[in-house]
Amino acid sequence: MRAASDAELWVARRPGIIAGLSLSKVGEGFWLTGLFVDPQHRGLGVAGQLVKAALAQTDGPTWLFCHPDLAPFYQRLGFDQAQHLPEALAGRLQRYQRSKRLLALQHGQSSLTSSPGNSTSV
């Protein structure tokens, strides 16, 4: 798993590392990348628990890019299709989509005008 030098790295251990993800600060939120679970521990809820733990410590929206087949997994964790991306992520997504099928998803508020508890982008 590669991560930016300024990224927060989250891991799940049992007792060794069995899963990890990276959160990088982007604008007023975070970009979640590199979610990986050891194949022997897949299907046990490890990824969902790790994502929830990381999101509980963030303030602001969190964005990610995923293959369309993974969207239902992330939607169960409270992610919705992103309506607006920070400029840095919008450009990156455009480049990635030249060679891959990817969706941009978002968790949390998208602006200061969003009301608490509202997962809809404004």
Query: Spans with pLDDT under 50 lasting ≥5 residues?
Result: 111-122
Percentage of residues assigned to helices: 10-25%
Supply the number of structural domains: 1
CATH class identity: Alpha Beta
Task: Classify the secondary structure makeup into a structural class.
Answer: alpha+beta
Dominant shape: globular
CATH fold name: Aminopeptidase
How many beta-strand elements?
Answer: 6
Radius of gyration, whole Å: 14 Å
Q: How far apart are the first and last residues' alpha carbons, in Å?
A: 33 Å
Order of helices and strands: EEEHEHEHE
Describe the strand arrangement of the main beta sheet, using strand numbers: 1-2-3-4-6-5
Task: Please state roughly what percent of the residues sit in beta strands, choosing from under 5%, 5-15%, 15-25%, 25-35%, 35-45% or over 45%.
Answer: 25-35%
Q: What is the count of helical runs?
A: 3
- Arithmetic mean pLDDT: 88
How does CATH name the architecture? 3-Layer(aba) Sandwich
Would you mind describing this structure in some detail?
It is a single chain. By secondary structure, this protein is an alpha+beta fold. It has helices at residues 46-56, 71-76, 87-96, and strands spanning 8-13, 17-26, 29-37, 62-66, 80-81, 103-107. Residues 111-122 have low confidence and may be disordered.
Describe the SSE topology:
Blueprint: E1 8-13, E2 17-26, E3 29-37, H1 46-56, E4 62-66, H2 71-76, E5 80-81, H3 87-96, E6 103-107
Parallel strand pairs: 3-4
Antiparallel strand pairs: 1-2, 2-3, 4-6, 5-6
